From TrEMBL:
GO terms for molecular function: cystathionine gamma-lyase activity; cystathionine gamma-synthase activity; homocysteine desulfhydrase activity; methionine gamma-lyase activity; pyridoxal phosphate binding. It comes from the Bacteria. Residues 1-24, 334-353 are annotated as: Disordered. This is homocysteine desulfhydrase. It holds the Pfam family Cys_Met_Meta_PP.
Length: 389
């Protein structure tokens, strides 16, 4: 029976339906497994396996369309680091300038040790990446994709770029944190590896730090498992259990938060004190056409700029009552932050840009809080934001 994703998030990763068996998988707390002889079994020690990982790993693989289980890690960045270890020494790694800042930091660190050459390219929907993939690099090419990007919300035509990478024999890795497998399934489009910050939408309640990588082949999965074993960034049993518990409501949460985000984007766009809004749902957004064609839904992250730049943004954020000023995203609660408050954020992100992660609250309560503060601000000039960048 082929089930829809809304059903699969609820039914995957459960013990078999047997009389008196637990409906939910148990949490197994152990550092070691009983074994006699030469330790060739699957489970020996808590760094190579834990039954508490299995249900989530199987569920995520199914949602992403992978044939073998995902690989859980202690954080999204641990999964990113493991995926970046697949880049051969001396190869060129191509990624968008506005890739998640932690990913860029790991790539820069590898480049500074001469292990790879890092090329940051501007987002243009994907044509530039396709052109880059067609030009061979000495030592080989690996392309890292993230769509939409964090926090600029640039949308890339993944079907186009991944097909070209596959044709050209270029390894491709996709960070699918923002879209989730309900929004797009890059492995089915030809990607070699998909990574997730499970911390965000998949777990969904801002109470867990966790990551995962999903490979397209058993051999690639084996290399990721090896990285987990050697890097030691193993997931805790309780965290894995919480992530599966969060996954149960993923479809519901995404449905509501996307709806809220699109409605807020429309209202923000119409408010005179807002200089600009980015959300792929808006017909005028540069990513709208590609997102409408290649994604299921437009996501629940949006960004705005106020005319007064960083100072006005900070005052605006401080004046809100319901919205929480906090980093991270993808939880049930609505949060926002001025991204450039992080010293590691790209200088090409406007200093006043505010990223909003829209939750599942009443859209009218969320709007009331924003509107009350916006009404106190001066109208935006017709030239748009006064940010220097
Ligand atoms: C948060 C995030 C990460 C890092 O994940 P952690 O769980 O915080 O380690 C990676 N990629 C994207 C797109 C993210 O938003």
């Amino acid at each position: 029976m082929s089930l829809r994703p809304e059903t699969r998030v609820v039914s995957l990763g459960r013990p078999p339906h047997e009389e008196e068996s637990s409906l939910n998988p148990p949490i197994v707390l152990t550092s070691t497994f009983v074994g006699r002889g030469d330790a060739r079994g699957v489970r020996t020690y808590g760094r190579d396996a834990n039954p508490s990982w299995d249900p989530f790993e199987e569920a995520l693989a199914d949602l992403e369309g992978a044939e073998q289980p995902a690989v859980l890690f202690a954080s999204g960045l641990a999964a990113v680091s493991a995926a970046l270890s697949l880049v051969p020494q001396g190869a060129t790694l191509v990624m968008l300038r506005h890739t998640y800042l932690g990913t860029v930091a790991v790539a820069r660190e590898l480049a500074s040790r001469g292990l790879l050459t890092l090329e940051l390219v501007e987002a243009d929907g994907g044509a530039g990446l396709v052109e880059r993939i067609r030009r061979p690099a000495p030592g080989g090419l690996v392309v890292w994709l993230e769509s939409p990007t964090n926090p600029m919300l640039e949308v890339t035509d993944l079907p186009l770029v991944l097909a070209e990478a596959r044709r050209s024999g270029v390894t491709s890795i996709v960070d699918n944190t923002f879209a989730t497998p309900l929004g797009q399934r890059p492995l089915l489009l030809g990607a070699d590896v998909v990574v997730h910050s499970v911390t965000k939408y998949l777990a969904g309640h801002s109470d867990v730090v966790l990551g995962a990588a999903v490979a397209s082949t058993p051999a690639l999965r084996e290399r990721l498992v090896q990285q987990r074993l050697l890097g030691g960034a193993v997931a805790g049993s309780f965290e894995a259990w919480l992530a599966l518990r969060g996954l149960r409501t993923l479809a519901l949460r995404i449905e509501r938060s996307q709806e809220n985000a699109a409605e807020l984007a429309r209202r923000l766009e119409a408010h005179p004190a807002v200089a600009s809004v980015r959300h792929p749902s808006l017909p005028a957004d540069p990513g709208h056409a590609i997102a409408a064609r290649t994604m299921d839904g437009f996501g629940s992250i949006l960004s705005i700029q106020l005319p007064g730049g960083a100072e006005e943004a900070d005052a605006f954020i401080a004046s809100l009552r319901l919205w929480v000023s906090a980093t991270s995203l993808g939880g049930v609660e609505s949060t926002l932050e001025r991204r450039r408050r992080h010293p590691g954020e790209s200088p090409s992100v406007p200093p006043g840009l505010i990223r909003l992660s829209v939750g599942i609250e009443s859209v009218d309560d969320l709007w009331e809080d924003l509107r009350r503060s916006l009404d106190t601000l001066a109208p935006a000039s017709p030239e748009g934001p006064r940010d220097p960048a």
